[in-house]
Amino acid sequence: MERSYSQTRAMFAIATASLRSMLRSPSAIIFSVLFPFIFILVFGFLSSPVPVIRVAYERAGDTSHPIARALRDRSNIIVSDKDSATIRTDLEKGRITALLRIDPVNPAGYPKYRVVVTSSSASGDRIGLLQSVILRTIGEVERSADPNRPVYAFMESVEVPGRVYRTIDFVLPGQLGFSLLSAGVFGVAFLFYNLRQTLVLKRFFATPVSRPTIIIGEGLGRVVFQLLTAIVILSVGHFAFDFTLVNGWTTFAEMLLLSLLGLVVFMGFGFIVSGLARSESAIPPFSNLVTLPQFLLAGTFFPVENFPTWLQPVCRVLPLTHLNEAMRNIAFEGAHITDCGREIGYLALWGVAVYAIAVRVFRWE
Length: 365
Known about the structure:
Shape: elongated
Strand content: 5-15%
């Protein structure tokens, strides 16, 4: 009795062959593992946190005081304007350096005001820089308000418990996301272009293997390879540089699930590039059009808030931005994947749009 052909067995055979070819490919190892690993090493050895001084004002204080206005005018100070509960959480987790409150203490005499600076143990070295800026600002306001009374206001420091936010906690999720983006776009584009050019796809058509089985098999091999890469990146970051995984293995597993989702979306871009490219030399320019803007603008190295206000909406449209934000929320904030509905929703919308285009432009021959 003749056995029916198993598309499932064929899919796993293709996936296994694809995975073996990637493991034997020096270029795949270099672009997927070595480049992100180099960035992690560089930023892992940097001891300073993300070099941005963010503060917030307590609403109970005088937020329109000349000292408050002078601090707002300084280019190196960014004032957060969120609700009180969010600001307190941001302070404890190091997203803002300090919470400021300006109180009158002796309206009829001197000193007239005090600046209460509430920081946390997560503020790191930035608090020292902030305090020096505040003291300098008080001195400038003193000279303009009453040059004959040097003690116009004084500073008082308060510290609350917090968790240190290291450079590696920001950089590693961005590097992992960019590794997935590069692999999904460049890897898939070159793979299917070469399969067409070497007539491998045409030979597949002479077999009982279906077209969806070919795509799923090749894609599955790349997914397994990139998840292995993600495991290496997360392990090195955690054990070598103390990258924060708040909930331990649960966080580790949820970051792998996010990596899987991001990779599937990014592979759609690779299918589009593969279909549009008419020669192998056209693949890098097309791929860079997808990857380079996201590498620079999606919060890979610096927070999106560091960019000009007019550019931030563009940054927040990019799929890598939402993947990076979800990764950081899970790794450091203690969120679970179910708490990242907004970011996952954006990625899903990108996935639907990208694969709708890929179906139209992908070529088998």
